[in-house]
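During the reporting period the student researcher (J.K.) took over the structure-prediction task from the postdoctoral fellow and processed the backlog of single-chain submissions. One of the processed entries is reproduced below for the supervisory committee.
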Amino acid sequence: HEALLGQAAKAYQRALLYRPDHALAMVRMAAVQWESADIRAYEGVGACQRAIEIDGACAEAHMYLGFFLCQ
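J.K. obtained the following structure tokens:
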């Protein structure tokens, strides 16, 4: 499980390197980091808020924002 999370994190890092404004990649990166215990809830909130600023229609960003706010 940890190895797959690490692979996912690297993939999202590469995606964000090429498209730093990719809201969905930003949110999913935060989710992977949360699952890996690499970020705190407030960092996830920040990532989701940035993603929503970029793409207010990103449903996953809103969903994970709620998740991180409840932690």
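The committee noted the following: The radius of gyration is 11 Å.
J.K. will present the remaining backlog at the next meeting.
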